[in-house]
Every structure is written in C-alpha cells, then in structure tokens.
Here is the input.
Amino acid sequence: MLVLSRRAEEKIVFPQAGITVHVLGTQGAAVRIGVEAPPDVKILRGELAETQQPPKARRRPKPSHALRNRLNTVGLLAHVLERQWAAGRTADAKATLRKLTQAVDSLDRDFTEKESGGPAVPKTPAKRRTLVVEDDAIQRELLAGLLSLNGVECDVAEDGQAALDFLKSHDRPDFVLLDMWMPRCDGPETVARIRRDPKLAGLKIFIVSATAPADLGLPAGTGGVDGWFTKPINPQTLWESIQKHLADASIHN
Here is the structure.
C-alpha cells in the first residue's frame, strides 16, 4: 500500500495503468476526488465493489481414464528406458526411446488441439543438428537421446579424432557436445583444432565433463568453448543453456 499526503488540486498518477486521481477538495473529514481511467477500466466505490461477487473459477476437470492410461504409459517407458541403459542393453533402450518419443509427441499434439479448440497448426522450425562426442557408449547414447527428445538431429563420435574426421566429411552441425577425457584426441586438443579451422569458425562447442573448466584452462567464447557443464549434469539446465546460446547467435548473425 502506498500512503501519501495530498493537498487540494494535487493529483496521483499511475502511468502504466493510465489512471490519474485528482484531489478536488476537502470538507471536514471527507475528501472529494476525481478519477480518470481508460474506458475499459471499471471504477466502483468500495461498498459497491464488495457486493459484486467475482465469477466462480472454472473447475479444472480431472484427467480422464484414457489420459491416465497414456500418462502411465509414458512413465513406464521412461522407467524401462532408464533400467535398460543401466543394464547396457543399448538396442532395447533405443527402441524404448523411440516409443517414448512417440507417446510424448502424441500427448503434446492432443493437448495443443484442446487448448486451441481445433487441430494444431503444424510448426516447421529449422531443426538443430549436433555432434555428440563421448567415449563412454552409454553416456554418448543417453546424451543423444536427450537431445533427440528436444527435436535435435544427433550424430555421434567416440573420440576427438572421430569427431574431427566427421566434421571434415559432413555438413557442419549447429553445435558440438564434447567430453574432455578421450583416447586418440582428447577434448582440449579437439577444441584447439576446431578453432584453427576457418571452415568451422563460430561453431558452438559445449563441454560435458567431470573436470572443472579452471583445471584445463580452456578459454571461453569464440576462441574456446561456449558453455561448460560439469558432470553429473542437470538435463533441463543443459538444454535450456544450449537453446539460449543458439538463440543469441541467431540474433547476432
């Protein structure tokens, strides 16, 4: 609450709301005021406002039996996927990941239609592409699966040398997700060689490593790395940060 002392002929202005309160005069304990407001702003005396009941809030419907079953399917698929990765059953996990993606997409489409009152308008944003570089096969596939669920097309490489060979022979991705400790060509050397290649200038490089950035002395920015995520990572934070970096790059290009 804002408490003010005003004299006659003075006013109080609410610029963002477009409202002005004029103090017209005083008589005894009463103060006469005038209120200017936009046409769509309703003004009532306090005693009248108290008699007008606000509309009842619309009760949120409970999930239907069919929706509960679909949500249960998504939860079961996520649990099975986690167990399959933990057991090293990569082929089974990939198949489960595809089913999980389809189930989530189906739910998203149905909710979009209900919110809009009709079929969802197809969106055709440009798909992001990445190269995931990680020597641990399970972590490599999990990172690729996480990004795939967010609509990113993923290629993978088992170490820095394989990543450099891929970048020479394929179209340039939007970003590289890179581990640090790998055989043949480790993370710091991979970063240095990417940054020396004029054809890869400006390529976004994000690091996922158990090592802190200060321990390796890699610079940040266009001459080094664009983002660093220390294991164990938070998947949501990882994706949101990557999105922000890519969006900023699009604005400045």
Observations:
- The first strand starts at residue 11 and ends at 14.
